[in-house]
UniProtKB/TrEMBL annotation:
Species name: Nonomuraea recticatena
A family per Pfam: zf-CGNR
Residue spans crossing the bilayer: none
Record-annotated Zinc finger CGNR domain positions: 132-174
Superkingdom, taxonomy of origin: Bacteria
Protein name: Zinc finger CGNR domain-containing protein
Gene3D superfamilies: Jann2411-like domain
InterPro entries xref list: ABATE (IPR010852), ABATE_dom_sf (IPR023286), Znf_CGNR (IPR021005)
């Protein structure tokens, strides 16, 4: 989701956003988004990697579109998983416990990130939870998210979009009452 929201949308929280267009800008945007999310930054992320990840983000974007048929969402993910050689295996550091990953131990950063993200999304779809992969329903926002609510009823990427949508609906009702 982080990659899609940083590199593949043009509207967020009611405002136009311009996705970064160069490798350096993309790399900086990814690093900033990782830091904001409380995730470790990648020291090995290059400008070239960031450019390749922008292509991946564009291919992942339809997975979050509820209007897209589930079969085409699955097919797009399958193609991505094959292209980036996703394969489950255990690997890790020599002095630590092995971890389950969905990329080869020798995979480059883009293949590793894409394989792991693509597999996670495929697992969500495969267990019948595709409806939890959502796009914000607020006007002027294309952000994507994973709905973690108990009844899968979340409609907005965040509180600011929810507030904007509710205020807009209130103004529309008031205008209809006075008309």
């Amino acid at each position: 989701m982080l990659l899609v929201n940083e590199l593949a949308i043009s509207r967020a929280r009611g405002r136009d956003v311009v996705p970064p267009a160069t490798g350096q800008d993309r790399r900086e945007a990814i690093q900033q988004a990782l830091a904001t999310a409380g995730l470790p930054q990648s020291r090995s992320l290059t400008d070239s990697d960031a450019d390749r990840l922008a292509v991946v983000a564009l291919r992942l974007r339809p997975v979050f579109d509820p209007e897209e048929r589930i079969e085409s969402r699955a097919e797009g993910l399958n193609q991505l998983l094959v292209r980036h050689a996703a394969v489950p295996n255990l690997h890790g550091h020599p002095d630590g416990q092995p971890v389950l990953a969905f990329h080869r131990a020798d995979a480059d950063l883009v293949d590793a990130w894409t394989s792991d993200a693509g597999t996670a999304l495929a697992m969500v779809i495969g267990v019948g939870q595709a409806a939890r992969l959502r796009s914000c329903e607020a006007g002027g926002c294309e952000s994507v998210f994973f709905d973690t609510t108990r009844n899968a009823s979340r409609r907005f990427c965040g509180l600011s979009c929810q507030n904007r949508a509710k205020a807009s609906a209130y103004r529309a009702r008031r205008a209809a009452e006075t008309a």
